[in-house]
Amino acid sequence: MNDLWIAIMEGKPIPEKTYNHVGFKITKEDFGLYAQRIRSLGVDMKEGRSCVDGEGRSLYFYDYDNHLFELHTGTLNQRLQRYH
Rounded to an integer, what distance in angstroms lies between the CA atom of residue 82 and that of residue 59? Predict the structure, then answer.
């Protein structure tokens, strides 16, 4: 993704899907582009809950071994301030 290189090793899948995940910040302008690219992979993808003011938008997807990733348009600080 952009200048970020991620290596995911193939191995035994995690037995069940959880909410434990790694999140990556993206711009709100790129949200639709990334959503389209992820949909084209055919992986289990879920958009975040309805947009909460100040929180940004999220897109979650599992890889084929049940690892969860998040693409988020806000920052951690914005999210923490929203729920403070």
Answer: 18
| Two tokens, residue 12 | 């035994």
The whole-model pTM stands at 0.74
Query: What domains can be seen in the chain, in order of their start residue?
Result: 21-83 (3.10.180.10)
First-to-last C-alpha distance (Å) of the chain: 31
Indicate which residues carry an active-site annotation. 70
- List pLDDT tens digits, range 22-42: 888 899 999 999 999 999 999
CA nearest neighbour of 52 among 73, 24, 31, 35: 73
